[in-house]
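Quick one, T. Sequence first:
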Amino acid sequence: VQLQASGGGLVQAGGSLRLSCAASGRTFSSYHIGWFRQAPGKEREFVSAISRLATTDYTDSVKGRFTTSRDNAKNTVDLQMNSLKPEDTAVYYCAATGDSWWDKRVQARYKYWGQGTQVTVSS
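Structure tokens:
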């Protein structure tokens, strides 16, 4: 599976962005898809994940603001980000795992990664 993230950009605090992760391969629907982010000087961290059956999970700091969805027919997963804060500034990555949903927050479980897209939120 090859992944490509897009949709990043510069937005003011309180604004919205929609990231998209496009995947190649006929088995896309069999993967859980995660979103991770890495801010300058910080380690990459879990943001959200969506399972094969569209169950979702979010880190506490984005709950109620971010929503992830998938369209298996189009091989895409989106991350709608609302009420953005300066602390959301980071490079955002999408990733795919065929492992257990139980490990959805574990980066090492994700075998395939996209190239990242920059999100910058100005105050």
